[in-house]
Amino acid sequence: MKILIADDHSVVREGLKMIIKKMDISSFVEEASSGNEALEKLEKIEYDLAIMDISMPGMSGLDILKKIKDKNKKGIFLILSIHKQEELAIRALKLGASGYLSKDSVYDELTTAIKTVLNGRTYISSALAEKIALNKIKGTSMSLHEKLSEREFQIMCMLANGKSVKEIAGELFISDKTVSTHRMRILDKMEMKKNAELTNYAIKNDLIE
């Protein structure tokens, strides 16, 4: 079994490797410390399982999932995140992730999560699943960022992280003009006027670090 661990923190990668070693499911474990490096490896090698952080330098875990989906490449992806925001979990699953796990509980739950996704089922932590279910029952009103398309949400998070239009265009392989158009639509849908408002909103809603 071929496994890829993508996380920008070496301590986290080492911890994940130790758990995988204890499970005795693979001797082929590769690492990536950035989103761009992870995507490059995923395009070269067909991994049986990729465990990816949602927030990494360069491309995020969601960015990678979208790239993989756009290229019709298949794989089993388990997303790790410090964010407990259910919207991120839902978006990750819609983009093809097999599981979403909060880093707060990763070492306790990872073994169960890996076994679950390798058996073809979807894994999401019980606490997050309960939160999603409660919001549906209560009929919680739609958050501003839920109005955004996948591409708009992707660019919104990049803008909120302080990336320029040119940087975003380079990472997503689209024109500056296209990014600027998306930015205008995002600000309009979210009823905001400048990037600083996007940053404050994203931090408040636990969408970025």
Overview of this protein structure:
It contains ten helices and six strands. By secondary structure, it is an alpha/beta fold. It starts with a strand and ends in a 5-residue tail after the last helix. It has two domains: 2-137, Response regulator (Rossmann fold); 144-204, Winged helix-like DNA-binding domain superfamily/Winged helix DNA-binding domain (Arc Repressor Mutant, subunit A), CATH 1.10.10.10.
Supply database-style keywords.
209 residues, alpha/beta, Rossmann fold, Arc Repressor Mutant, subunit A, 2 domains, six-stranded parallel beta sheet, 6 strands
Computed structural class = alpha/beta
Shape: globular
Count every helix, treating DSSP H or I runs of 4 or more residues as helices. Answer: 10
Topology order in helix (H) and strand (E) letters: EHEHEHEHEHEHHHHH
Summed up, the domain count is 2
- Roughly how many Å is the radius of gyration? 17 Å
Q: Helicity, in percent? A: 40-55%
- Named CATH topology of the largest domain: Rossmann fold
N- to C-terminal distance: 32 Å
Number of strands: 6
Task: State the CATH superfamily name of the largest domain.
Answer: Response regulator
Q: Which runs of at least 5 residues are low in confidence (pLDDT < 50)? A: none
Biggest sheet architecture? 6 strands, parallel
- CATH C-level category of the largest domain: Alpha Beta
Q: Give the rounded overall mean pLDDT.
A: 85
What strand line-up does the widest sheet have? 2-1-3-4-5-6
